Amino acid sequence: MSLVAGRVTVTVPATSANLGPGFDSLGLALGLHDTLHAEVIAGGLEIEVTGAGADSVPRDESHLVVRSMRQAFAVLGENPSGLRLTCENVIPHARGLGSSSAAIVGGLALARALVRDGRERLTDDELFELAAEIEGHPDNVAPAVYGGFTISGNDDAFYAVTAPVDERLSAVVFIPPTGVETKVARGLLPAEVPHADAAANSGRAALMVAALGFAPDQLHRATRDYLHQDYRRPAMPESLALVDALRADGIAAIVSGAGPTVLAFVVENADELLARTPAGWVSHHLRIDTAGVRASLA
Ligand code: HSE
Question: Where in the cell is it found (predicted)?
Fold first, then answer.
């Protein structure tokens, strides 16, 4: 019997993808976490969900955490008699903060933690690849697995590297009251862009690696995007209006992932930024998460 007796707990961070010019590639883990608990029981499937999505997520095998756990158990060659799962969801859904990646990575890490030598049988790199396959793209799952700032993509296989983040940096996220589905936001993107835009965007994406790593004074310039944010304006006009207003004041603000959350980088004082939260929105000042997904017994 190689399954762990008793409860395991996983914490998994929210993530912000794109970071301006790094469309479908750059990602950052944030200090906002879902906490998931699981244990093997005699039979059946029991699911309790509190917080974000508690009113809407299914309580059966189609639950994304459960589906991800099943995939990891299949890879690990285990088939638990029954499962009890508890999700304390803090990451808001459909806001561009990586809630589905958190569910996938969290589910894989839960299953791995429930298997005695799970970490040897499913390494972090293998967990990342499996998560990216389930999600279909790697830009949120990479920072959710590894923490920090990641550069990821997909050619013959999914790849991800972690790059340094200047320790002075943190972020404020501005979360609107209603979400936008990623599918809708992607539907607004053009099939082609002008070569001049692609060239300008390449330069900013390269600059972003330096700006986040050691040159935060370059963040405003580096976060300028040419490939997606403006095209998505019709789906999230208030978010783009906030990005425009913050950027006009020299603040490095971007749309987080496919939106509609707005993220602004902070070097010193976040209070002035928090004061700019639009009515009815929620904002948080968050540290950069450097740990990624974490599991513990109990
Ligand atoms: N990069 C994706 C997009 C969202 O902007 O559509 C996160 O995977």
Answer: Cytoplasm
Q: Ligand 1 mean position to 125 CA, how many Å?
A: 21
pTM for the model stands at: 0.96
For ligand 1, say whether the CB of 188 is within 6 Å of any of its atoms.
Answer: no
Q: What is the pLDDT confidence band of residue 60, given thresholds at 50, 70 and 90?
A: confident
Q: Whose CA is nearest to atom 6 of ligand 1?
A: 258
Residue ID of nearest Cα to ligand 1 atom 3: 258
Query: Ligand 1 centroid vs 257 CA: distance in angstroms?
Result: 5
The confidence band for 269, taking pLDDT boundaries of 50, 70 and 90, is: confident
What is the radius of gyration, based on Cα positions, of the chain?
A: 19
3-state secondary structure of 177: coil
Q: How far apart are CA 131 and CA 234, in angstroms?
A: 31
Give me ligand 1 centre to Cα 135, in Å: 11
pLDDT digits over 104-141, tens only? 999 999 999 999 999 999 999 999 999 999 999 999 99
Instruction: Report the DSSP pairing between strands 282-287 and 8-18.
Output: unpaired
Q: Is 93 annotated as a binding residue?
A: yes
Helical axes 99-113 vs 64-76, angle rounded to 10°: 40
Establish whether 101 is an annotated binding residue. Answer: yes
| CA–CA distance, 263 with 223 (Å, rounded to integer) | 11
Q: Which domains does the chain have, with CATH numbers?
A: 8-163+289-297 (3.30.230.10), 170-286 (3.30.70.890)
How many other C-beta atoms lie within 10 A of the C-beta of residue 183?
8
What distance in Å separates the CA atoms of residue 231 and residue 115, rounded to the nearest whole number?
45
Is 95 labeled as ligand-binding?
yes
Pocket of ligand 1 contains residue 18 by CB under 6 Å = yes
Local confidence band at 85 (pLDDT 50, 70, 90 cut-offs): very high
Question: Cα separation of 191 and 162, whole Å?
Answer: 30
